[in-house]
Each structure stands twice: as structure tokens, then as C-alpha cells.
Fold this protein.
Amino acid sequence: MNFQLSKEQEFTRKMVREFATNEVEPLAADIDKEHRFPEETVAKMANYGMLGIPFPTEYGGMGGDHISYAITVEELSRVCASTGVVCSAHTSLCCWPIFNWGNEEQRKKYLPDLLSGKKLGAFGLTEPNAGTDASGQQTRAEKVGDKWVLNGAKVFITNGGYAEVFVVMAMTDKSKGNHGISAFIVEKSDKGFSIGKTEDKMGICASSTTELIFQDCVIPEDRLLGNVGDGFKVAMSTLDGGRIGIASQALGIAQGAFDVTVDYMKSRKQFGKKLSQMQALQFQMADLKTKIEAARLLVYRAAFMKDQHENYSEAAAMAKLFAAETAMEVTTKCVQYHGGYGYTKDYPVERMMRDAKITEIYEGTSEAQRMVIAAHTFKK
Amino acid sequence: MAFNIIVCAKQVPDTNEIRINPETGTLIRDGVPSILNNDDNNALETALEIKDKYDDVVVSVISMGPPQAQDMLFECVAKGADRGILISDRAVGGSDTWATSNAIEAGIKKFEKEFGKVNLILAGRQAIDGDTAQVGPQIAEKFGLPQVTYVEEFKISDDLKTVNVHRQMEDGYEEIEVKTPCMLTCIKELNDPRYMNMKGIFGEKEIIIWNAKDIEVDLNKVGLEASPTNVFRSFTPAPKGKGEILEGDTENQIAQKLMIGLKGKHVI
């Protein structure tokens, strides 16, 4: 056992923290209020290599590891969860499946632009009637000559409005259920593909969450990712990794809320003393700090296992379940410790509490994480 | 031939976090993070901007300090410098500015033997821990190079032979043109230093450590014993009492109150 971060991981934290403090935090409240996707920040993240961390340099990646990637999402989310999820969805849900499931031509065609951040990526699995039950896919893909024709719609797609490359699941043989799903790479400019409604959400308001619409969308046959029928495996393996990203986001939100609350408690006086001097509150904060640290260990362990090419599916589910519930608890309590001020938009904990909620829902609800963990426990 | 830029950098305690032990008068360094000295960061940024713009520019960062100062050089290389060089040896520990510039001079001579002639030396104006602003100019003197301190604006000709700078003054600036090779000390107004980048963090890094023997420095000119400076005492100045603001309806009234106060304290 060695709990020491490497120099590279430590410097990743230092770099991203400086970046987040100077470039991300000053915008966080405004972009939340305006529901504005921070294009200028994403361009800067691309410039500094933050959109291709855990991939080999031969495809234009940074040659980093998944703990450094987790630290990056954590540190961005510590000040702005919307900015954090741009990096997470792009890296885990689009770059990774193309890297892992793509053939050499697909890797060479798509990864350099994605990993340099020249193009942003997204992932389309969820449909109005296929959420946790992903097997209910109604988007169809039919082989017509040497093309695939896609018809259907996806919902709640993170980065939807700004992505140029999409990894999309569609049913190629309904009779085979999960084994009848295939994965495809869709480009923004593909004929018959369009972006539908942009969701008006409770939190992560600066993140672009949209519908994807396929109306006789014709794509070349070489856009098939993996083999016909691999789609469910592509999706589930992608979400295993995505959960490390979302767990990191949740961890960052929790840490951010905790940190601003420590500062607040050191200055806020009631009954003649500072909140930080009141033992009831000290004990509460001690508990929260312990839970955040426990979440951090679970998140980094899952990322470490991914780097070691171990099976990390259950570890990632545990990390996401615990980090998301910790983020919700920490932000809710931090709003409470701010009192009335915490309920106003003048203090960031209000936004953080709204942002935390999504981490219990997307890329698998907390219930779905329990299903994964239970399956690993009882189906052996 | 490559255009060699040397950036002189120092790892310093983050002064935002520093305190002084009131009993001993020494800095409390425990738990205080070490950082790349602020002005040196501006010097590095200038070097990297030249490297961004012109081919065949090599940026080497040189420092003297304990082995931990490698972290600061890691940061410089992760920002885009080609290499970091650390002069580290107990023999050079405790050096004052004169002894430090002797060691850096020897380091730069060693550098020239290994990597070729130096075309430009950039340093920060001063380090936030010592605030002397002496090491940069001393290095320039030792090499007989023209020097400009307090550089707040910088331009270099496309042939990299002429540098045009603004030197900050209290009430304006001097515009100075100087031929390379030369030595400049930089201030924070010069530029906004970049962050490290991921490619730099994860890429291969050349960080070289040289000891006193490697740089062939005269041991009578470095280290605590050789340093002519003696620090007599460090202390935190006692905070001054709060000032008093005199108020009144007219200037006369306020002047009257002032006179009464000054006379009362026998100042006049």
C-alpha cells in the first residue's frame, strides 16, 4: 500500500487548482445564473492539455494517468461543477470508448482532435424510455448498402450543444435485446443529425444538456464502434469509467462546499463567538471532512485500478455512490451552517447544493450503483 | 546554433503564509509551501514567449538550493522550459548574495561548456524571501554583460540581436535598447505567467543536479563562511498604533485641533 501521490499527480493538482482559482471560479456564479456554457474556459482547458489527460501521446494524449484525470475533474468541480463535467463527459464518455473500442483508423481519425480539445465529445445512450433500463433502446440503426441509417432520439446528453463527435448507441437487432445494440460514431455535420431541446435544469446550469435527434441520419459503415451487437458492452464499460469522472466531480463539489464553509465559520460570529469555536459545529465539520476523505480514497482507488487494468466496475460504482451521497450531504449541511446566507445566491454553497444532486442521478443513479455492487456480491 | 536563454530562479517560501517566531526572530518554515519566486516566474514567461515565437531557442532554468528545489524546476519544465539545473551542495549552503552569484557564475560557465554560449540571462527583480535584488546584477557584472533591471516591457528583434525594454522608474519608465548577450531582471508588470501544461507535467523532464565539484567553483568564494554579509537580527516590526483622524467643519477647525494635539504631546 502506498498512499503517496506521484510528483505528476501532485503537480496536476497544483496546476488545475491555480487554473480553477484564476479562470474558473470568477465565472462560476455568472455562468450558472446565465445558463451559459463556458466556451472560453473550455478553449483554455484544451490549450493546457486538460481534455486528453489519460491517453497515450501517440494519439495526441498527454500520457497521464486516471488519478491525475480524477484530480483534474475534482479540482475544476471544487469551484464549478459545470466546468468539471465538461471535462469528465468529454474524456470518459467520448474519448475513452473511441480509444478502447475503436479500430486503428478510428483512433487516428478522431482522437487527435478530441484529445487536443480542438473538438469536444459527447455520448448518447439515454432515451426518454430507456434510462437505467438501457436495453429499452428505441433508436434504430439499419444497414442500407454500405451505410448505416439512424432514426430516433437521445435525451439528457451532456456537452450536446457544443460537441462535434458523439458516441451513440442504437438498436441494430431488436430481437436480441441487449445483444442487439451497436455503438456508432456520429459527427455533428452528419446529414439527418440535429440537436433538439436544451434542458432547463436544477443544477450544473452552465453545462449543455440537450436532445440528439436522428432523422434518416446516414453515416458511413466505418463509423460502427466495435462489432455489431457490442453496443451494450461499449456503453456499460464506458459508464464504468465515466463513474470515476462523476465521482471525482462529486468529490470536488463536496470539498469546495466544505472549504468555503470553513472560511465562513471562521468569520461568522453569533452569541459572542465564531461558529468555528462552537463544538457542536466543529464535530459536524469533523464528520464531513472524514466522509470527504473516505470518498477521495474510494475515487482514487477506482482510478488506480483502471490504470492497473484491473476490473474496476464495482470499485467505480462504490466510489460514485459514496462520493455522490457525500456531496449531497456535505452541501446540504454547508447551506445549513451558512444559515439564511447559504440559501441566497450571494454564497456559492447554494449553487453547490443544486449541482451536487445530479451526481446521484447521471451516469447511473445511486440505485443503479447499488445494483452493480449487489450484482458483484451475489452473482458470483 | 541555438539561442540559449538562462533563467535564474529561486524556490522561496510562500510569503502569504510566512510568520516569524517572535522569540528567535527566525522564519517559521514548517508547513509553509515552497513556490517559484514570483518575479522569476515573469522572467521564465519572457523566455518562453521568445521560445514560442522563434525556432531553435533553448530555455534552461538554473537555481541554487537544497534538493527539494527540484520541485520548482519540475514546475518550470512543466511550463515549457527545456531543462532545469540545480546547483546543490552543502558547501554552497548559507551563501549570501555575493557567494550565491559566485556559484551561479560557476554554474553558467559549466553550462556554456556543456550546452554552448549563453545569449540572454533573465532573472526576477528580487526574491520574496530576501528582497535584496542583488544576485541578478552581480551575475551580470561577473560576466561583464550589460544589464537592465526592473524590466516592465520587453521586445526582441527578429534576429534576436537587439532587445528593447522599458525599465520601470518611480515616476515613469526609461526606454533602453541593449544588444544580446545581456542580463535583464523582470518585474510582475512584464507579463502574466502561464500555468504548467499537462504535456509538460507528464512528459520527459531534464533536471540536472550539479554539486560544487561539478561546477568547479572556488570553495573560498561560496557558502556561509565566505559570505561577507552577516544577518545581525531578524524581527517583526511592532505594529504601529492606529492613527487618529481629526474631523471638523472647516479647515481652520481641523488645523486648530491638530495644533492642540501636537502641542499637548510637546511635538512643537
User: Anything to note?
Assistant: Chain A has a mean pLDDT of 97. The radius of gyration of chain A is 21 Å. Residues 7-115 of chain A form a domain with the Butyryl-Coa Dehydrogenase, subunit A; domain 1 fold (CATH 1.10.540.10).
